[in-house]
Amino acid sequence: MSVPRKASGWQAAQPWISLLVRLALAAVFLGAGLSKITDLAGSARAVNAYQLMSWPAAQVVGAVQPFVEIVIGLLLLAGLVTRFAAWLAAIGLVIFISGIASAWARGLSIDCGCFSKGGQLPVGVAPNYTWDIVRDTLFLALAIFLILYPSSRFSLDAKVLGPPVNMEEEFDEQARAGATPDGEDGA
Amino acid sequence: MSKRAQEQRQTARMVREQIAREKRRKRTLWIAVGTVAVLVIGGMIGYAIYAGNKPATWNTPANANAGQDGIVTGSGPVAVDIYQDYLCPYCKQLHDSAGSQIEQMATDNKITLTIHPIAILDSRSTNQYSTRAAAAAGCASDGGKFLAYNDALYGNQPAEGGAGPSDDELIATGKNVGLTDTFATCVQDGRYMTWPVHTTDAASARGVSGTPSVFVNGTKVNPTLADIQKAVGAAAPASGSPSAS
Questions:
Q1: Digit-coded pLDDT (tens) for A71-107
Q2: Cα–Cα dist A22/A14, whole Å
Q3: Within this chain, do residues B26 and B141 fall inside the same structural domain, yes or no?
Q4: B46·A65 Cβ contact <8 A
Q5: A48, A68, A123 member nearest B223 (Cβ)
Q6: Which residues contact B58 (CB under 8 A, 6 or more apart)?
Q7: What is the extent of the structural domain holding B35?
Q8: Alpha helix locations (H) across A38-54?
Q9: Shortest Cα distance, chain A CAs vs residue B44, angstroms
Q10: B208 to chain A: which residues are within 8 Å by CB?
Q11: ipTM of the complex, rounded to two decimals
């Protein structure tokens, strides 16, 4: 008895946890995008500081990136195509982490430009790549959680797509009805 | 009987679920396609705003270099390029600790000094001080007093985060170093207000991602007097005295 009860506890909590994760990740992406959107030229320079691409390419990436971040943030905020948005967030974060790691490996001394600013650091100011990578890895963990458990409370997905018909929800129904999944399988 | 009815009901339910699943999948697909479209459009809007905000034309001050992105002093054999923002504290530090020696090398024609006033810290003052100061420096170059005004700007450097000196204050600073009403008109008219956009753009294209950045004969060096002098010494012609050859 204890095992199904535990499982149903998780099933009851999961949509709420997913909601919190979704809103946290939305705040991260909206914050990152909005802080850059008022200074697109600065955003382009922050990309340029990584020295991974030519200045013309950095300008395109720098101008486009904040808007893409905001779209991802809005999707997560609304809970629309949550899993897809979480994938986009995860891909973005993997790119950011790789960029910071590569700047670190090449011995560049730059501000990551993660939440605006960016650019080369003055002589004598040490970059804080460890913290940047740890933070982005935490965000990546949130995104992966959302890829695994995209269904959440107060999401537009539930409204637009109707009630989910996947396995977990069936188990959820069964659990609520009092039947154990094992018993159902045996019948 | 009841068993059969139950089976029928179950089959019907499975079919309904299958249809629902199919519908859901289709809708998800379309929403994903729509999302990608929104992302692409959002990105295009971003680039359009960026490109639209970027002025395409600028006036070039007197004594500018060939690239029109810096003010030249001296005509020595070694090229020293300094990229600086008038709001940047480390630029002031470099200026205060090395400026007079570097200027001396330029006036002695040991080096060709090109100072590039760029504006990357506009967001760190409430009134676009970086751009306005760089534009005023362009006006000072027209008046033949670029270095003196450069010194005066660093002497009056505001703190980051607040409002920098107003245009009137920039004009007053210019009057203090002997600039005339022509200078005042130039600042008031914003004659060189789009010039820093060009200098900043040119700096980015050269790989400058912070200030101060110093290049000696095209090679980046640490922005300290010792390293600059060392690099100039190494790049200078081998003969002890400067020759005209």
A1: 999 999 999 889 999 999 999 999 999 999 999 999 8
A2: 12
A3: no
A4: yes
A5: A123
A6: B68, B192, B194, B195, B197, B198
A7: 1-53
A8: 40-48
A9: 7
A10: 120
A11: 0.80
